Amino acid sequence: MLCIGFPGFFCLLEEIVVMSVTSADFQAVLFDCDGVLVDSESIANRALHRTLQDIGLEMTLDEVANTFTGQSFAHCLLLIEKRLGGPIPDIFVPNNRTYFRTLLQDELVSMPGIERVLSGLKVPFAVVTNSQYQEMNNKLKYAGLDAYFPAERRFDTETLGVAKPDPAIYQLAAKSLGVDIHQCLILEDSFPGITAGTRSGATVWGYRPHLTADEIADFGLTRILTDWSEFPL
C-alpha cells in the first residue's frame, strides 16, 4: 500500500509481469505467415509492383508496400480496381501469380531464428494466413518449414472463407484446434493481422510490426519482438 503514491513503481511492476510471460503460459501459439514465418512480403510487393506496371498503374515500390502489405489478395484486387477506376485486365492475376511463384522458388527463406522457436515450443502451434491454400503450402515448402505444420495446423483465407482484419479467422482456427482463443498467443506484423488478433480476444505480440508508435499504443501490444531470439519459450 505504501507504493500507491509512486505510479512509476506500478509501471515497472507491470512491465516485469509482462516480460515474465512465456509461450508456455498459453494453450496455443498462432503465427501469421508472411513477414513472420517466412520472408515473403518483399517478394510479394516486388511481384505486385511489376504486375501493376504491366497494366499501366504506376506506383513506387514503397507505395505498393504501404498500400497492400497484410491485405488478402481479394482485397488487393478491390483496391487496384478503385485506383484504375474500372475492371482489372484479365492478364493481371495470372501474370502476378507467375511472377510471385518464380520469385518464391528462387528467393524465399524462413525468418532467421524461427526454426529454433518452432522446435522449442511446448504448446500446440499453427499458421493462420490471408494467403490462398496452395500459396500457403508453397511458402512453407520453399522456406523449409513444411515439417513443422501438419495439415490440421494450417489455416488459410480460402479454406476458412474469411480474411484478416476479420477476427473470425483466428477464432475459427482456435476452435479447430480445440483451444480457447482467449488463451492463445498470436504473432503478427501487419495492421490487418494485428487488428484481427486483438479483436479475436487473444493476446497479440508484434513481430517487426509495420506500425507507428501511436498505433502500437492504440492496439495495446504488450510485447514487440525485433528478432526471434527474443521470443520467450
TrEMBL record:
Keywords: Magnesium, Metal-binding. Its cofactor is Mg(2+). InterPro entries: Beta-PGM-like (IPR051600), HAD-like_sf (IPR036412), HAD-SF_hydro_IA (IPR006439), HAD_sf (IPR023214), PGP-like_dom2 (IPR023198). It comes from the Bacteria. This is HAD family phosphatase. It holds the Pfam family Hydrolase. The lineage of its organism: Bacteria, Pseudomonadati, Pseudomonadota, Gammaproteobacteria, Cellvibrionales. Coiled coil: none annotated. PANTHER family: 6-PHOSPHOGLUCONATE PHOSPHATASE (PTHR46193:SF10). Belongs to the HAD-like hydrolase superfamily. CbbY/CbbZ/Gph/YieH family. GO terms for molecular function: catalytic activity; metal ion binding. It comes from Cellvibrio polysaccharolyticus.
